Amino acid sequence: MELEGKAALVTGASRGLGAAVGVELARRGARVVVAARGAKALDAVVARIRREGGEAHALAADVGEREAIYPLVGAATALVGPIDVLVLNASSLGALPMPELADTECEDFEHVLQVNLLGPFRLVKAVVGSMVVRGAGTVVGISSDAAVNGYPRWGAYGVSKAALDHLLRTWAAELAEAGVRFLSVDPGEMDTQMHADAMPDASREGLADPELVARRIVSVLAAPERWPSGARIEASSLESAA
Amino acid sequence: MNTLAPAAWPDRDASATRLLHLDPGRGTFTDRRIDELPLLLRAGDLLVLNDAATLPASLRGSSSHGEIELRLCGAPREGGGGRWPAVLFGPGSWRDRTEDRPPPPPIDAGETIEIEPPGEGRGLAARVVSVSPVSPRLVELRFDRRGARLWSALFRLGRAVQYSHTRAPLPLWHVQTAFAGRPLAAEMPSAGRPLRLPLLRALGSRGVGVRTVTHAAGLSSTGDPDLDAALPLPEPSVIPATTVAAIERAREAGGRVVAVGTSVVRALEGAAVDGPLRAGASVRNERIGPGHVPRVVQGVLSGVHAPGESHFELLRAFAPRALLEAALAHAARTGYLGHEFGDSTLILPTDDDRSTRAA
């Protein structure tokens, strides 16, 4: 898909990978809405995109709140038009430091599912009908190695990401003929605040630069037809588009 | 009695929506369900939807003279920094019928309506730019912000325009079609509400095309008889080139163009009043009624409408009054539901005479 002029919505876009994906999409000519809870950090991302000559708009929203989803999609669509590209990047690790399951509060688990699974479900539900009628659109969920492997202390998060992958596979199966594509991307371990929150004692050596990973993800968004809809892609397997 | 009970809430399974099929060629009508729509259409036909989403058009505020509800009727493009047409009302709630609502307190150009009290940088205000000579309720407004800050505030503070026959106040997501795109409509283009994605896919598998226009459907009622008589107010409308191409292909192949909703009729017939249908953006203010000879649209899927409604007058361009009235009497007698969340009618000739149509 040519990204020039496309309407893109990126959640969790105030920092880290989400911000980098927003910047990269705008560099490729997309009209970008960046969403996250923190308005101030979002404004900085928008300012950066505009300085580079791109188009961006900031909408402060918590995708874990049911009532926040429709206003987010409505305002985003008013600003850039019906969404062509949806990047489901916002996610919560849950309680910090990350506890083992036996010590995980039910409320914390629920919150992780609200942000990482139900928020994405509601967002897709709000944009997908327009994509189907237009016969085009791409939804990418940012997954994790923890969606596939069971790591101690990554229980709530890993379950939410495994479910997100499966949610997107199921949308893909239901809308196989509709021209709308659903993909999961495992970005790999990156040098982000989220990584530092999850593993404060781990070395940062060998962690990927989120800007590099963002370029790889945007190269997927530019040509999603290279994968079958519903596929799960490991970013480390991708060449970075320059 | 030709009075339909209103559907009070959009909670019914959309596939249970009843469909009354009127055949103006034969002068007959038949009871169907919306899921049978694919049986009534054939490969090569084209369904045209209005993909305008419903605005959070109803905002509460006050001027220095008292309480005001303003209902936005259309949105300017380019971030909303331009003039917004709006209809003003005095005090009242969603339980009051629009026609019973008192007029707004007197307001002049230059005055400000505070939508939200100022404070913590969140106050939203609108300045009255002009007042219409047709009615003191119809004004143009300019908001004190634009872009993401304006749209965030509108979606935070605004509600859907309410209907007194509903069971409870309607949240905005209950007045959206399954395929809604840009928020431009003052009220839901409700004819498309029963068309859920599985039904649209079933139509596609049958070879029926589905395309869109984006038509900023305006308010259905203003509470002022003079202003109601002037409805519809000018409606911004966009017809994509892909839709015009699909209409041309359908016609060449002998397919029929079915408009989903009166707003699609206004968009397509309006854009073809003085020449061939062209793609692009325009503002439509044609009133389509019994004298209109359709140039683009052969069939209409809509709600169930009664004489006296402007929608009923529009449908008279597609079926004789006697058939519409007989069908309405049947619908009322057999429990069809009316209004935004009610049942559907399809006006479409049963085409069993290709030679006549091709002539």
The main sheet of chain B comes to: 9 strands, mixed
Distance between the termini of chain A: 17 Å
Give the amount of beta strand of chain A, in percent. Answer: 15-25%
Low-confidence stretches of chain A: none
Give the number of helices of chain B. 9
N-to-C series of helices and strands of chain B: EEEHEEEEEEEEHEHEHEHEHEEHHEEH
Helix content of chain B: 10-25%
What's the short version?
The complex is a heterodimer of chains A (242) and B (359). Chain A has 242 residues and is of the alpha/beta class.
3D architecture notes:
With 242 residues, chain A is of the alpha/beta class. Chain A has a single domain, classed as NAD(P)-binding Rossmann-like Domain (Rossmann fold, 3-Layer(aba) Sandwich), CATH 3.40.50.720. Chain A is built from 7 helices and 7 strands, in the order βαβαβαβαβαβααβ. In chain A, strand 5 (137-142), helix 5 and strand 6 form a beta-alpha-beta unit. The model of chain A has no long low-confidence stretch (mean pLDDT 96). Chain B has 2 domains: 5-54 and 169-358, QueA-like (3-Layer(aba) Sandwich); 58-157, QueA-like (Thrombin, subunit H, Beta Barrel). In chain B, the strands form 4 sheets. Chain B has a 9-stranded mixed sheet with strand order 3-2-19-17-15-4-13-14-16. A 6-stranded antiparallel sheet of chain B has the order 6-7-8-11-10-9, with helices on one face. In chain B, strands 1-18 form a two-stranded parallel sheet. The interface between A and B is medium-sized, with 25 and 30 residues.
